């Protein structure tokens, strides 16, 4: 089965390593930045660079990692015998790939698509067997070093543990990002040995091997060492998170979004924002979320997997899996749970929780309410403290409120129940029976007033004769 890739490069992402220094039960590349696993950043960068075929090598915690990559091809490297061995494991999965094969590390979430594209372009113009992305570091400890020949051409990569004393001063390092000629790489792969300090099959040895064969090897450098930061510890995870946060925020600001303090705003890469959106401090926008123009979001707000219409105001609230219409207002301290739909001009106010419910156009739930499994029509006012009693201990039931109804404060709506159009419920009523359109539903003990009681209580005789 030979499949040709007519255009674009293929990418191989190495992600089988354990990541011991993370001190974690989670495989390293499954750790998240802005809600997205590290390996997904690398996969997205490869796709965005035009790689139309992406293969990921998994090993440590493979089940967990593969679950994060449902649309990608994964191959297993059962034993981690080195980066060269990881590539060997992918040979069958990459069968038929011709031309450029980009090799990346799953733990480098900052690598840009444009840099990958630059590598591919360099290889395609030079027709080299390999192009290596290099950078110079103040402290190159731990990295493979770039060794050049008399004419300054890349001749070998030497791993830190295999350096000769004279090579320790080399500041130029291998970033672990390459573009190979796929056919040439696989032709020579079986020549890799593991006679080195770590007893591993090093992919980096391909460089000296190619040069010995008289094949061309090129390098491209990046002067932004941060871009190639590999995440090996939680400290580096936080560093990479900061860089990504700033990079994403900067793009939104340049596109017309105001942030009072961009260091206090966290936006997932999967979020879209309209123009003139204002993001106040301590705002997190996560998952697949879109915010239309002119909204004011925050402070102290988290919105996940939700759609927010134009000119909405969301203050100090948590919104998950909800759809919020144009000109709506949410909070302070509202909690909109999955399945909430606020239609245009609706309001979910202070300390209001709504779940799996639609609040119709212009309807208001302004204070201290729980609305679950309800359909509320247009122009409805739900009084303070109203609760839908949607759960009978076994099953959930629906509440339906017609257009223009007025729900008195502290109404208990014992579902299943429906309130007709324009109906009114008396404050403090437990409404367990349907209220017809236009009717008043009231359920309350009659009030008794005891004349002069207050004065008698003051005199110490309050309880005598009520
Ligand atoms: C590697 C390079 C080194 C470079 C550095 C840049 C080699 C031999 N060395 O070293 O020159 O400076 O990256 O960060 O390639 N992996 C597997 N299977 C394995 C081993 C590793 O999939 O058997 C994966 C890891 O999950 C990781 C990547 O390959 O994503 C790099 O492996 P790692 O062990 O981190 O290599 P370094 O020692 O950092
Ligand atoms: Ca590494």
Core attributes:
single chain, 466 residues, alpha/beta, Spore Coat Polysaccharide Biosynthesis Protein SpsA, Chain A, UDP N-Acetylglucosamine Acyltransferase, domain 1, 2 domains, nine-stranded parallel beta sheet, seven-stranded mixed beta sheet, 8 helices, 41 strands, 17% helix, 29% strand, disordered N terminus, binds uridine-diphosphate-N-acetylglucosamine, binds calcium ion
Describe the protein's architecture and organization.
With 466 residues, the protein is of the alpha/beta class. The protein folds into 2 domains: 10-228, Spore Coat Polysaccharide Biosynthesis Protein SpsA, Chain A, CATH 3.90.550; 252-441, UDP N-Acetylglucosamine Acyltransferase, domain 1 (3 Solenoid), CATH 2.160.10.10. It is 17% helix and 29% strand. It is built from 8 helices and 41 strands. A 9-stranded parallel sheet has the order 14-17-20-23-26-29-32-35-38, with no helix packed on it. Strands 5-4-1-6-10-7-11 form a 7-stranded mixed sheet, sandwiched between helices. It is elongated, with a radius of gyration of 31 Å. The N and C termini lie far apart (95 Å). Calcium ion binds next to loops.
According to CATH, the fold-level topology of the largest domain is Spore Coat Polysaccharide Biosynthesis Protein SpsA, Chain A
Mean pLDDT: 95
**Poorly predicted runs of 5 or more residues:** 1-6
Which structural class do the helices and strands define? alpha/beta
Shape: elongated
Radius of gyration: 31 Å
Count of DSSP strands = 41
Helix/strand layout:
Blueprint: E1 10-15, E2 32-33, E3 36-37, H1 38-48, E4 53-58, H2 62-67, E5 73-76, H3 83-89, E6 100-105, H4 113-126, E7 130-136, E8 145-148, E9 154-158, E10 172-181, H5 182-188, H6 206-212, E11 217-221, H7 234-254, E12 258-259, E13 265-267, E14 271-273, E15 278-279, E16 283-286, E17 289-291, E18 296-297, E19 301-304, E20 307-308, E21 313-314, E22 318-320, E23 323-324, E24 329-330, E25 335-336, E26 341-342, E27 347-350, E28 353-355, E29 358-359, E30 364-367, E31 370-372, E32 374-376, E33 381-382, E34 387-389, E35 399-401, E36 406-407, E37 412-414, E38 417-419, E39 424-425, E40 430-431, E41 440-441, H8 453-458
Parallel strand pairs: 1-4, 1-6, 4-5, 7-11, 12-15, 13-16, 14-17, 15-18, 16-19, 17-20, 18-21, 19-22, 20-23, 21-24, 22-25, 23-26, 24-27, 25-28, 26-29, 27-30, 28-31, 29-32, 32-35, 33-36, 34-37, 35-38, 36-39, 37-40, 39-41
Antiparallel strand pairs: 2-3, 6-10, 7-10, 8-9
Bound molecules: uridine-diphosphate-N-acetylglucosamine and calcium ion (CA).
């Amino acid at each position: 089965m030979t499949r040709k890739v007519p255009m674009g490069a293929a990418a191989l992402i190495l992600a089988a390593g354990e990541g011991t220094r993370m001190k974690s039960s989670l495989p390293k590349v499954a750790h998240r930045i802005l809600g997205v696993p590290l390996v997904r950043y690398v996969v997205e960068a490869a796709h965005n660079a035009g790689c139309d075929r992406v293969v990921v090598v998994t090993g440590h915690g493979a089940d967990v990692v593969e679950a994060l990559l449902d649309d990608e091809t994964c191959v297993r490297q059962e034993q981690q015998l080195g980066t060269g061995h990881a590539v060997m494991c992918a040979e069958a999965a990459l069968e038929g790939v011709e031309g450029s094969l980009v090799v990346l590390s799953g733990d480098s979430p900052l690598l840009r698509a444009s840099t990958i594209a630059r590598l591919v372009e360099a290889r395609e113009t030079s027709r080299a067997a390999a192009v290596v992305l290099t950078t110079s570091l103040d402290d190159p400890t731990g990295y493979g070093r770039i060794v050049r020949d008399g004419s300054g051409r890349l001749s070998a990569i030497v791993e830190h543990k295999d350096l000769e004393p004279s090579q320790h001063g080399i500041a130029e390092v291998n970033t672990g990002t390459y573009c190979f000629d796929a056919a040439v790489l696989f032709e020579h792969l079986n020549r890799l040995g593991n006679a080195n300090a770590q007893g591993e099959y090093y992919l980096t040895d391909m460089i000296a091997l190619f040069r010995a064969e008289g094949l061309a090897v090129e390098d491209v450098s990046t002067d932004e060492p941060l871009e190639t930061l590999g995440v090996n510890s939680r400290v580096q995870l936080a560093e990479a998170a900061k860089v990504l946060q700033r990079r994403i925020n900067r793009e939104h600001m340049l596109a017309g979004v105001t942030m009072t303090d961009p260091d206090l705003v966290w936006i997932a890469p999967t979020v879209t924002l309209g123009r003139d959106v204002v993001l106040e401090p301590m705002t997190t926008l996560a998952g697949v979320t879109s915010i239309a123009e002119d909204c004011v979001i925050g402070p102290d707000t988290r919105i996940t997997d939700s759609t927010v219409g134009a000119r909405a105001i969301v203050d100090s609230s948590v919104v998950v899996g909800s759809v919020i219409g144009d000109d709506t207002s949410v909070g302070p301290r509202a909690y909109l749970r999955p399945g909430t739909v606020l239609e245009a001009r609706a309001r979910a106010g202070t300390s209001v929780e709504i779940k799996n419910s639609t609040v119709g156009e212009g309807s208001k739930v302004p204070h201290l309410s729980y609305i679950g499994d309800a359909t509320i029509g247009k122009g409805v006012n739900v009084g303070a403290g109203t609760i839908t009693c949607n759960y009978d201990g076994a099953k959930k039931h629906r509440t339906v409120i017609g257009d223009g109804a007025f729900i008195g404060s502290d109404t208990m709506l014992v579902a299943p129940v429906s309130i007709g159009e324009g109906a009114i419920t008396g404050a403090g009523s437990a409404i367990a029976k349907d209220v017809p359109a236009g009717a008043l539903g009231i359920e309350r003990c009659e009030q008794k007033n005891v004349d002069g009681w207050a004065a008698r209580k003051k005199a110490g005789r309050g309880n005598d004769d009520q």
